[in-house]
Design a protein that fits this description.
By secondary structure, the chain is α/β, with parallel strands linked by helices. The chain has three domains: about 70 residues; about 100 residues, Beta-Lactamase (2-Layer Sandwich); about 250 residues, 3-Layer(aba) Sandwich (Rossmann fold). It contains 16 helices and 15 strands. A hairpin with a 4-residue loop joins β1 and β2. α4 packs across α5, α9 runs antiparallel to α16 and α12 crosses α13. The protein is elongated. The relative contact order is 0.09. This is Secretion system protein E. It comes from Paraburkholderia lacunae.
Length: about 450
């Protein structure tokens, strides 16, 4: 592995990306992570540049990348120690260990931000050029001391992440949605679109198995809400999860999916695969962007249409954001009960309005009344989730669509979060309240033998 004198001045080149391992943290890292303190001093030092150049000039990269991180570590430590002696570099053993860790992060991870991926408390990682790395912990953004060497370093890491899932990002295609091997969502924007350097936004996938019960323990919803949502899943209700960016829509969708019967065939459709369903019979589909000639794109609408021919019991769409809304409503209305999707909206009523707009994008000739009747017939529940000012995600409303009255869709709130305005402080105070109304889907619950359980859960 070592001794072959091949020179690799830049290990993260796009040409090498196909040979690299997927950029993701191992579930239980056994190797020491590079501490964030002193990161800028180390990776931008002349000593780091010299040792890094010697390491990559002394390694057979193709052979090294076929091995594990721990197997390669010993060889890099030996080369680094020889370089320190030969070049008479004035560095401490601690700095030498940091340099070796940073080189390994470049080879097997995502560079300087690898420690953040290993930190379970971090939910979002935001790279704004080489000098700014923010992390979200417990709903709050904080600036970290981590730095990249330069903008080219950020770009190389971004290109490697994209290449790992068969996508590309460069000057001709400066934006891309990708994912890490663990399901974490990644968005990349390169210059000249990003004026202050390459931008990488990572929405981390939680290693913990988030369930509805755990969400109730965390204060995201009430135990009564959990019981009603479990019944809704068992009764195969069509559910839309509405909320803003980063409000926890996908997490809630994953939690709801735990209550899908294991004998059902589920087809998931996403731009970047994030859903982690536990059922044995799941078919996961992912969109494909167009190639450099502008051909070969596969959109969500294409996948929804194709999914209807795959004999699904349920279709789960990661996010509805365009003309595919028309096909989703068609699927919900044609026997694919229990289908779910997410949508960006601030209230359940706004979610309905957005659905109307997206259906009109697909078929502008449909009268608005017909669109509303389709929505009222297809959608049973809208779950409104919100990231509140204290950083806690809460299920603020469980809204049922109760049919049409004239040209208006009638809704009723089964549950709502009422915050206490008189107790204003850093933490949001409030209670989850039941409306005590009889749900329209109680008749459907009776068909599944769950009406009594449902009415007990609705009692205040």
């Amino acid at each position: 592995m070592f001794g072959a004198k091949k020179h690799f001045p830049e290990p993260l080149r796009p040409a090498d990306a196909e040979t690299l391992q997927p950029a993701a943290p191992s579930p239980a890292p056994a190797h020491p992570r590079t501490p964030p303190d002193g990161n800028e001093t180390v990776i931008r030092s002349e000593n780091f540049r010299k040792i890094r150049a010697v390491v990559f000039a002394s390694m057979n990269m193709s052979a090294a990348l076929m091995k594990t991180r721990d197997q390669v570590r010993a060889g890099i430590e030996e080369i680094a120690a020889d370089a320190v002696l030969r070049e008479q570099l004035h560095i401490t053993p601690g700095e030498q260990t940091q340099i070796v860790g940073e080189i390994l992060n470049d080879m097997f991870g995502v560079g300087p931000i690898e420690p953040l991926l290993a930190d379970d408390a971090v939910t979002d990682i935001l790279v704004n050029g080489p000098d700014q790395v923010y992390a979200e912990r417990h709903g709050r953004l904080e600036l970290t001391p981590l730095k990249f060497r330069d903008n080219a370093h950020v770009t190389n890491v971004a290109q490697r992440i994209a290449a790992a899932v068969g996508r590309r990002v460069d000057e001709s295609s400066p934006m891309v949605d990708a994912r890490l091997a663990d399901g974490s969502r990644v968005n990349v924007v390169l210059p000249p679109i990003a004026l202050r350097g390459a931008s990488i936004s990572i929405r981390k996938f939680s290693r913990r198995n988030i369930t509805l019960a755990r969400m109730a323990q965390q204060g995201n919803m009430s135990p009564e809400m959990v019981r009603v949502l479990k019944i809704a899943g068992a009764c195969r209700l069509n559910i839309i999860i509405s909320g803003g960016t980063g409000s926890g829509k996908t997490t809630l969708l994953n939690a709801l999916s735990h209550h899908i019967d294991e004998h059902e065939r589920v087809v998931t459709i996403e731009d970047a695969a994030e859903l982690q369903l536990q059922q044995p019979h799941v078919v996961s589909l992912e969109t494909r962007p167009e190639n450099s000639e502008g051909l070969g794109a596969v959109t969500q609408r294409d996948l929804v249409r194709n999914a209807l021919r795959m004999r699904p019991d349920r279709i789960i769409l990661g996010e509805t954001r365009g003309p595919e809304a028309f096909d989703v409503l068609q699927a919900m209305n044609t026997g694919h009960d229990g289908s779910m999707t997410t949508i960006h909206a601030n209230t359940p009523r706004d979610a309905i309005t957005r659905l109307e707009s997206m259906v009109m994008m697909a078929n502008g000739n449909l009268p608005l009344t017909a669109i509303r009747r389709q929505i009222a017939s297809a959608v049973h529940l809208i779950l409104q989730i919100e990231r509140m000012r204290d950083g806690v995600r809460r299920l603020t409303r469980v809204t049922e669509l109760a049919g049409m009255e004239g040209d208006v869709i009638i809704t009723q709130d089964l549950f709502a979060f009422r915050y206490d305005a008189s107790a204003y402080q850093e933490d949001v105070k409030g209670t989850f309240e039941s409306s005590s109304l009889r749900p329209v889907f109680a008749t459907r619950a009776a068909y599944y033998g769950l009406e009594t359980t449902l009415m007990e859960a609705m009692r205040p």
